[in-house]
Please model this.
Amino acid sequence: MIPFRTMAAHGAEKVYALVRRVPAGRVVSYGQIAEQLPAITARQVGRWMAFAPDDVPWWRVVGADG
Model:
């Protein structure tokens, strides 16, 4: 069995990879990112954005209401 922390880190890296692909001048919601990945929720995406590395354009990800 894979340790939970390893699974969480793997999920975060998948989210960060998707966010890096969001073009400049565009935004997506936490939910839109979560829909692209199985077993990932919008809340998880939001939490991971709070701790995103410097190379992840976290400002392009917003809540569903903008």
Remarks:
- Helices lie at 4-20, 30-35, 42-50.
- Residues 4-62 form a domain with the Arc Repressor Mutant, subunit A fold (CATH 1.10.10.10).
- The chain has a mean pLDDT of 89.
- The chain is about 50% helix and 5% strand.
